[in-house]
Amino acid sequence: MIIEALIGVTFLAALVTFVLPDRYAGKAAFALSLVPVLGSLVMWQQYDASGNALLGGNIAFETDVVWLQLGQYDLHWMVGVDGISLPLVVLTTILTTLAIVSSWTPIAERQSQFYGLMLLMEANLLGVFTALDFFVWFVFWEAVLVPMYFLIGVWGGPRRKYAAIKFFVYTNIASLVMFIGFISLVFGLGDSISSLRLPEIAMALQSGQLSGFAGLSASALASVAFIAMFLGFAVKVPVVPFHTWLPDAHVEAPTPASVMLAGVLLKMGTYALLRFNFTMLPETARSFALPIALVAVASVIYGALLALAQQDLKRIVAYSSVSSMGYVILGLIAYTTYGVGGATFQMVAHGLISGLMFMAVGVIYNTTHTRMVTDMSGMADKMPVTAGIFVAGAFGYMGLPLMAGFAAEFFIFKGAFESTVMAAMPLFTGVAMFGIVIVAGYLLFAMQRTLFGPFRFDGDYEITEAPFHDVAPLAVLLLLTIVLGVSPDIFFTMIQDAVNPILELGGAF
Amino acid sequence: MTPLQTLPDWTAMAPAIVLGLTGLLLLIIDTVDPETSNNGLLAGVATLGSLGAGGIAGWFLIAGTGMEQTGGAISLYGDAIVVDGMSLFFTLIFTSVAAMVSVASYDYLADQRYQGEFYSLVLFAATGMTLMAMSNSLATVFVSLELASLPSYALVAFLKKNRGSVEAGLKYFLIGALSSAVFAFGISLVFAVTGSLVLPDVAANLSNADELVGVLGLGVLMIAGGFAFKTASVPFHFWAPEAYEGAPAPVSAFLSSASKAAGFAVAFRVFTVAFPLDTVTALGGGSVDWSLLFALLAVVTMTLGNFAAATQENVKRMLAYSSIGHAGYALIGLAAITVGNSAANGDVLGASMAHLLVYGFMNTGAFLFIAMAEKWGIGRTFEDYNGLATKVPIAATAMTIFMFSLAGLPPFGGFVSKYALFYSAIESGFWWLAAVGAVNSALSLFYYSRVVKAMWIEEPSKPLEIGSQPVGLYVAVIFAAVGTVLLLPGFQPVIETAQTVAAALF
């Protein structure tokens, strides 16, 4: 029942915050959000699952009750976690709390609504990462959109209306495409399943129960469903060429919303790719290895090149997310224990580091009211702590050893080199590794221009060190990044344990 | 033996009787002292009457009155009236809408004349709707349809100083009279062929009608036209935007939710009981195959309603067209009926009924929010709603829930009821109908989210003056919002009841 409690408490916290007066909303939201943090840590401490939740593994904190009986397919309230979802649950709770603290300075109007929506989004995200029934999962998946739409649309920058609508329309159409793909798979399974529980569907697919539907043969149906689901999730990730909503959404979104968007919402896409495409249809995935690897490498290189061309700090970080999420796709298609495990680890690592970077940009913006690289120089003289953390975070992003980014990228590259899905995989990996150089390039370029050199600032604001509550969440994230980098086994063993059953299916062993 | 079974049979009509008596009581209260305003008392009595009738219907449903496990449907007055699970389920929809509308009208009518008449007209119309759901003979169908319609005409034209309202009332009345005539003519043709008006007898005599199958087909078509008017389906829909826009907003809520559901109630019963598909398709080479007719109507209605709604600048008009679109969704219940698969037929018809119940909450709520906006005098276009959320966050939250639920977005009741509807259609083999519905539903998000965007994201284009905080309207709107949200987790009993009672028709 701990998962239900976690989601329920977060919902309640959102309601309470929504009706509180603005003055107390920020502090109250912070205090209330500590409860889910505590809950997720308790879950982590008491975690006793083994194997993959979808492939007959032992699921932790499982609940499975019939919610709705409707025709052939019962809808179950089924939630639970395994080694893939638990790290993301912990990431969600911690990042939300930190994002709430980082909102104290920039969010000045309609605060209770803002914090209420942040908590509402957290509750839905927890639902996405714990739901194991397609219907329940889809309810949460779509429900995440609503608070994000408001967060961008109400508290965003000058072009917020355009960005909010674009985000909403893009991701909603993607959801529809994905939904059609998945449902066609369900109809293809016919009488061999009696519910929409993901484990049941995954097991039925593994045992070859898929038959044709609407004139398509079983293998053609699998391909069509795979492509539809991949397109749907690819928008969320986002991979090139479906990434165009992301810079708009990021640039216009207020800092805390960007943190959540890059830190957790993008992971919904890769998490779903892993759960649906790569776990349920491994043969189909392997047959599409070449286009997927191409897309992954294109995202890495093109995203990094786009970042290199930006003058806006936030855009730099936003495009670099496209690049980093490309690594995740590369790791997933590698179909090796280090590849898929590293991809999952990268989801957490990138969640921490991109959160850190967006917050750091936000702190600089709070002080300077500009994010343009050309407007400032030598900021480190005036705000040494912020600058120090910014540099440390950037090093984490570049994959400096003993930081989470390094561990994740190392795992992914190791896994991708070992991969046997196709002969050209080492070539793709080599090209993708070149992305690191570009990442180092644009981050060093940005830091050099903004933080170091003689102090110069084209604006009327007084530049002082940021207040403690702005810097503290950065420090926490940096600490977590280092902890995870020094000791990746905190999550990596449980991730590996959950990933290995997928690989046995994929035929990598 | 449960206490229910020891009561005389006619008590099964208690919901209709309570509604009718409340209507009369309201007239009496108003007659005692017509000069003073008893608005609070009148609204209270109307609400209590509706809730009482709804409570009895709910109690009957739980106790199983008229359902299979308690000996089957209760027939009254020579089979002209039948009380079964389906009529009780629809009664629940009418009474909850009537209750919400009565509460909300307390504020809306505060400075209007003829308050007593307003409430009693609402209650009489609700009585007519309840009787429509219970009608088992084409004669009672016609009479109860008129009982529901005549008060509605007056209600639409209630704001007699307002040209829009009067014009809407006239338009509604003229088209209503025309379609009543068409409907009556259809009944007479069916009577000519089958020699009966009682629905099961009509079905029993259909097999003798082989030479007159053309006349029968014409009769069925004309009867379908009558229902299309009542449910605001294409091609008899064009009164709806005018009437809903011109009418006082609580009346629009009442018409677009309850009155539409009543049309569906009687359409479901007449077509499944009097013209069972497996019998009529056997006649004259399937020329009376009404399932195809309704499939066509469903597709055209939902598509036309949605596209027309997308082009509106006026929120109330947008809702009116979207309500036409929802009539299209509900029509799937009739369209997806197939020969010889009674289990799937019950499922899809039940899903349609469950959608109408959820729709009763979300659509009534949306129109009542508009009533609030009218009360505040802030105008009717999308621009006029700009920045409303800064002034009235709670009401705007409720409206947001209605809009997203109408669009079929989780986590609201509209999502799960649409899912059940489309799923049941696919199960009956009508996956293309479900696909058209799903695409329409996705498109509808565009215009529903415009309201949300205006309220929350846009800056007010002019200073917003929110004068009063109308208590009754707030209560009704929040009640509808809570209902819309709770119908997602609590959907199981609704769909279960709906599908059980619908299955009893086959």
TrEMBL record, chain A:
<feature type="transmembrane region" description="Helical">
    <location>
        <begin position="385"/>
        <end position="412"/>
    </location>
</feature>
<keyword id="KW-0472">Membrane</keyword>
<dbReference type="GO" id="GO:0003954">
    <property type="term" value="F:NADH dehydrogenase activity"/>
</dbReference>
<dbReference type="InterPro" id="IPR010227">
    <property type="entry name" value="NADH_Q_OxRdtase_chainM/4"/>
</dbReference>
<feature type="transmembrane region" description="Helical">
    <location>
        <begin position="316"/>
        <end position="335"/>
    </location>
</feature>
<feature type="transmembrane region" description="Helical">
    <location>
        <begin position="347"/>
        <end position="365"/>
    </location>
</feature>
<feature type="transmembrane region" description="Helical">
    <location>
        <begin position="167"/>
        <end position="189"/>
    </location>
</feature>
<feature type="transmembrane region" description="Helical">
    <location>
        <begin position="466"/>
        <end position="486"/>
    </location>
</feature>
<feature type="transmembrane region" description="Helical">
    <location>
        <begin position="255"/>
        <end position="276"/>
    </location>
</feature>
<feature type="domain" description="NADH:quinone oxidoreductase/Mrp antiporter transmembrane">
    <location>
        <begin position="132"/>
        <end position="429"/>
    </location>
</feature>
<feature type="transmembrane region" description="Helical">
    <location>
        <begin position="125"/>
        <end position="155"/>
    </location>
</feature>
<keyword id="KW-0812">Transmembrane</keyword>
<feature type="transmembrane region" description="Helical">
    <location>
        <begin position="210"/>
        <end position="235"/>
    </location>
</feature>
<dbReference type="InterPro" id="IPR001750">
    <property type="entry name" value="ND/Mrp_TM"/>
</dbReference>
<dbReference type="GO" id="GO:0015990">
    <property type="term" value="P:electron transport coupled proton transport"/>
</dbReference>
<keyword id="KW-0560">Oxidoreductase</keyword>
<feature type="transmembrane region" description="Helical">
    <location>
        <begin position="288"/>
        <end position="310"/>
    </location>
</feature>
<dbReference type="GO" id="GO:0016020">
    <property type="term" value="C:membrane"/>
</dbReference>
<dbReference type="InterPro" id="IPR003918">
    <property type="entry name" value="NADH_UbQ_OxRdtase"/>
</dbReference>
<dbReference type="GO" id="GO:0048039">
    <property type="term" value="F:ubiquinone binding"/>
</dbReference>
<feature type="transmembrane region" description="Helical">
    <location>
        <begin position="424"/>
        <end position="446"/>
    </location>
</feature>
<dbReference type="GO" id="GO:0042773">
    <property type="term" value="P:ATP synthesis coupled electron transport"/>
</dbReference>
TrEMBL record, chain B:
<feature type="transmembrane region" description="Helical">
    <location>
        <begin position="12"/>
        <end position="29"/>
    </location>
</feature>
<dbReference type="GO" id="GO:0008137">
    <property type="term" value="F:NADH dehydrogenase (ubiquinone) activity"/>
</dbReference>
<feature type="transmembrane region" description="Helical">
    <location>
        <begin position="41"/>
        <end position="62"/>
    </location>
</feature>
<feature type="transmembrane region" description="Helical">
    <location>
        <begin position="318"/>
        <end position="340"/>
    </location>
</feature>
<feature type="transmembrane region" description="Helical">
    <location>
        <begin position="118"/>
        <end position="135"/>
    </location>
</feature>
<feature type="transmembrane region" description="Helical">
    <location>
        <begin position="290"/>
        <end position="311"/>
    </location>
</feature>
<keyword id="KW-0472">Membrane</keyword>
<feature type="domain" description="NADH:quinone oxidoreductase/Mrp antiporter transmembrane">
    <location>
        <begin position="135"/>
        <end position="444"/>
    </location>
</feature>
<protein>
    <submittedName>
        <fullName>NADH-quinone oxidoreductase subunit NuoN</fullName>
    </submittedName>
</protein>
<feature type="transmembrane region" description="Helical">
    <location>
        <begin position="141"/>
        <end position="160"/>
    </location>
</feature>
<dbReference type="Pfam" id="PF00361">
    <property type="entry name" value="Proton_antipo_M"/>
</dbReference>
<feature type="transmembrane region" description="Helical">
    <location>
        <begin position="82"/>
        <end position="106"/>
    </location>
</feature>
<dbReference type="InterPro" id="IPR010096">
    <property type="entry name" value="NADH-Q_OxRdtase_suN/2"/>
</dbReference>
<feature type="transmembrane region" description="Helical">
    <location>
        <begin position="261"/>
        <end position="284"/>
    </location>
</feature>
<dbReference type="GO" id="GO:0016020">
    <property type="term" value="C:membrane"/>
</dbReference>
<feature type="transmembrane region" description="Helical">
    <location>
        <begin position="352"/>
        <end position="371"/>
    </location>
</feature>
<dbReference type="GO" id="GO:0042773">
    <property type="term" value="P:ATP synthesis coupled electron transport"/>
</dbReference>
<keyword id="KW-1133">Transmembrane helix</keyword>
<dbReference type="InterPro" id="IPR001750">
    <property type="entry name" value="ND/Mrp_TM"/>
</dbReference>
<keyword id="KW-0812">Transmembrane</keyword>
<feature type="transmembrane region" description="Helical">
    <location>
        <begin position="471"/>
        <end position="491"/>
    </location>
</feature>
<feature type="transmembrane region" description="Helical">
    <location>
        <begin position="392"/>
        <end position="409"/>
    </location>
</feature>
